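INFO  loader      accepted 1 record
INFO  loader      residues=304
INFO  predictor   begin
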Amino acid sequence: MDELIESRQLRVFVTVARAGNMRQAARQLHLTPSAVSHALKGFEESLGMRLFERTTRSVTLTREGAAFLPEAERVLEAVAGLGNRGGPRADWRRGRLRLGASPTACQYLVPAVIREFKESFPEVTIQIEQGPAAGIAQDVAAGRIDLGLSPRTPEHRGLTMVDVARDELFFIVNPMHPWARAGRVNRAEIERQRYVLAESRSFTKRLIDDHMRSEGLAIQPFIEIGNEEVIKELVRLDIGVGIFPAWIASEEIARGLLVALPLGRKPPAREWAIFHRSQHRLNFAETLFVGISRLVGGNRIGRA
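INFO  predictor   done
INFO  writer      dumping tokens
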């Protein structure tokens, strides 16, 4: 169990317990039902026990939840008493969140996370710094950024990591490419292809280079760029072969505009995470941002 529990988490728990309904509790808390659900899940994980049994229409306390409720109510009453003795308290729906994210995260994940987050925290200012995964890790470690969202890299050691998702890299080709028509990659042709790849300082490019070396191969980029939408378009125009996760091009693959082929028997994989300094205790808004990021990442990429 965490050493400290935020009173806002207790308030969510008590409100849901009293209401017996997630939507009704959300209205009372001025949050979205999704935000309340994320808050409860994070609270249960921090306590290491389930507090509620959930159905589509209602929530009921577990035995552990029922035993914990009186304690939570007493703590909230004590906090309220302390608050009444002091001056006005800050509005917990206001503040600032400094987020660092890799280019892929900024392009495909962050907008959906922010859209849901802003429904509950419209007054929180979000500052977004885009950069390579290793650079974001360094900024988080130095305290320049509160949260980071990117694939794990060796530079993430020493940070608190929350798993988000896992993906694997594929060859992505135009449907008229010989590999697409054959339905397989010809190993003898790999080194002769023209490649459109992620920029050299990215973690994805590092993974590609390490994988090719392990296979006894060496490839050179024909075009190198840090924008996967541009890479997709260049591959779609048959300008070169791309190497990136299939989920990024899921729509184009489904429409037959691109084809994904395995990058060997043991393709390189990226472990996605949202992370922060170990000494930084997440506030209520940050906790919900982490929960929403896990949901969006899991749905779009795949569970870690």
